[in-house]
């Protein structure tokens, strides 16, 4: 098809020449806990001292008191319950990877997905916990968000290429959005519907993937189909930041279908990374950052631009706590 830049950077950014992509302007219960699994000191020391003191009435009272205290201590130190996470756009290119990563880490997560069609559901395994629904319809979202702890939003309006483009004749393809599936309906109303539904369901964190470029109203992506996609995405990001729900907004650079985990990730703010040579990122890396954002307090109530150094330069990012700690911006 028409994209001739790289085969892996997809439409959203590949139709913009690289140089023009710049902004201008625990829960153990004590009774069921085998002694061998009690964490070593100070809890095990505490356990021995309370047992030896349990023969007198005073000692028994003290024993019970200590037992309660120890139980609380062990609870806090023990394994936490897996987080139930819904990924929307779970049939999309990044959404699929996030959903798979969550499924693979079943000790930490219970994965749920929301997709638009039966075909998308089958594509990601057709599991019972994959809901089919359209985010433009609030009712379709309500059942999917029920009982979840966190939401990862990976839905987006997707531009279509106008038929008749012949790459052999040169020039650029033209794009359009289908009626009813413009960024205003999907990236604004659809995202807002998800945030509202999550809030009503008592969701504790929302991770939203957006795009770099939103500080520039004249960004070329806004002219695709004359639909202001970055403007509507930004409006949804603002709505999330104002929602009162702990959030992480990830504004990705140009997405590439490349292997993840092998590059140094870069975080930034206010589209500053777009002024540099490092403004792309593998979808697999974006997906990992989404998953890690669910596990680190340092990621909460922050917005970050995300790109990576080219493979072979820098040190592949492994410490996500430190990565999120670098981010100082709330929006
Ligand atoms: N492409 C880039 O270079 C680039 C750069 C920066 C940021 N981004 C952003 O990064 C995010 C992930 O991008 P991606 O390329 O991985 O996404 P993608 O493959 O385009 O996936 C978008 C998903 O949204 C779903 N969707 C669209 N309208 C929907 C609706 N009304 N109801 C329910 N689901 C709906 C689509 O469902 P179907 O599968 O049924 O169509 C699709 O699964 C997007 O927000 C994108 O804008 C992209």
Descriptive overview:
The chain has ten helices and twelve strands. With 331 residues, it is an alpha/beta fold. The chain has two domains: 35-77; 81-325, NAD(P)-binding Rossmann-like Domain (Rossmann fold), CATH 3.40.50. It has an eight-stranded mixed beta sheet, sandwiched between helices. A two-stranded antiparallel sheet has the order 5-6. Helix 5 (118-123) links the parallel strand 2 and strand 3 (130-132). The longest helix is centred in the first third of the chain and has 21 residues, at 57-77. It binds NADP nicotinamide-adenine-dinucleotide phosphate. The site of NADP nicotinamide-adenine-dinucleotide phosphate has 27 residues, from helix 1, helix 4, helix 7, strand 7 and strand 9.
């Amino acid at each position: 098809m028409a994209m001739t830049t790289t085969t892996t950077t997809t439409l959203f950014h590949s139709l913009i020449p690289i140089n023009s992509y710049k902004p201008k302007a625990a829960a153990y219960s004590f009774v069921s806990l085998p002694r061998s699994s009690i964490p070593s000191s100070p809890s095990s020391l505490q356990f021995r001292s309370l047992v030896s003191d349990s023969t007198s009435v005073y000692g028994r009272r003290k024993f019970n008191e200590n037992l309660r205290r120890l139980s609380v201590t062990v609870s806090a130190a023990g394994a936490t319950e897996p987080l139930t996470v819904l990924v929307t756009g779970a049939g999309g290119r990044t959404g699929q990877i996030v959903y798979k990563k969550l499924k693979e880490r079943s000790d930490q997560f219970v994965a749920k997905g929301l997709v638009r069609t039966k075909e998308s559901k089958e594509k990601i395994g057709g599991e019972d916990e994959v809901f089919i629904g359209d985010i433009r319809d609030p009712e379709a979202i309500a059942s999917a968000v029920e009982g979840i702890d966190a939401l990862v939003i990976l839905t987006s309006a997707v531009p279509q290429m106008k038929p008749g483009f012949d790459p052999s004749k040169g020039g650029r393809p033209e794009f359009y959005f289908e009626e009813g599936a413009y960024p205003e309906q999907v990236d604004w109303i659809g995202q807002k519907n998800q945030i509202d539904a999550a809030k009503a369901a008592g969701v504790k964190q929302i991770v939203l993937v957006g795009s770099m470029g939103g500080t520039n109203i004249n960004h070329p992506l806004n002219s695709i189909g004359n639909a202001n996609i970055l403007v509507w995405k930004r409006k949804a990001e603002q709505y999330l930041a104002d929602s009162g729900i702990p959030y992480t907004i990830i504004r990705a650079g140009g997405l590439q279908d490349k292997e993840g985990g092998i590059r140094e990730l870069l975080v930034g703010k206010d589209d500053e990374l777009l002024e540099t040579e490092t403004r792309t990122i593998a979808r697999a890396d974006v997906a990992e950052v989404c998953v890690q954002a669910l596990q680190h307090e340092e990621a909460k109530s922050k917005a970050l631009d995300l790109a990576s150094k080219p493979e072979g330069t820098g040190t592949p990012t492994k410490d996500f706590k430190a990565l999120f700690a670098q981010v100082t911006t709330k929006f």
